[in-house]
């Protein structure tokens, strides 16, 4: 059995493989609650930004993810 740990909250995801309850973003594995929080966080940042730019969006994704991994939460 493969052990998967969330890169944000560092929790072990017991049934990650069978439940497909982990996600892979930019070389990081992320559990479902952290993914939801991350998406919500990014969504609020995106709605505040006008005009929208794809480059910018990718940067926000990366920065938000890096920050979340460092802090241990989104
Ligand atoms: Zn997590």
Compute the CA-based radius of gyration.
13 Å
Bound compounds? zinc ion
Helix content: 40-55%
Order of helices and strands: EEHEEHH
Total beta strands: 4
What would the average pLDDT be, to the nearest integer? 88
Low-confidence stretches: none
Major β-sheet profile: 2 strands, antiparallel
Strand residue content:
15-25%
- Class inferred from helices and paired strands: alpha+beta
Number of discrete domains: 1
What are the salient characteristics of this protein?
binds zinc ion, alpha+beta, 74 residues, 51% helix, single chain, two-stranded antiparallel ribbon, elongated
What report would you give on this structure?
It contains three helices and four strands. The protein has 74 residues and is of the alpha+beta class. It has one domain (4-71). The strands form two sheets. It has a two-stranded antiparallel sheet. Strands 3-4 form a two-stranded antiparallel sheet. A hairpin with a 2-residue loop joins β3 and β4 (28-31). α2 (32-47) packs across α3 (54-71). It starts with a strand and ends with a helix. The mean pLDDT is 88. Bound molecules: zinc ion (ZN).
The gist of it:
The protein is α+β, with helices and mostly antiparallel strands and 74 residues long.
SSE blueprint and pairings:
Blueprint: E1 4-5, E2 12-13, H1 16-19, E3 22-25, E4 28-31, H2 32-47, H3 54-71
Antiparallel strand pairs: 1-2, 3-4
The structure holds zinc ion.
Zinc ion binds next to strand 4 and helix 2.
């Amino acid at each position: 059995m493969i052990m998967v740990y969330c890169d944000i909250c560092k929790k072990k995801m017991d049934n990650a493989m069978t439940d497909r309850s982990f996600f892979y973003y930019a070389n990081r594995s992320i559990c479902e609650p952290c993914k939801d929080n991350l998406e919500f966080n990014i969504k609020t940042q995106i709605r505040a930004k006008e005009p929208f730019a794809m480059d910018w969006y990718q940067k926000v994704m990366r920065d938000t993810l890096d920050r979340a991994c460092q802090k241990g939460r989104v």
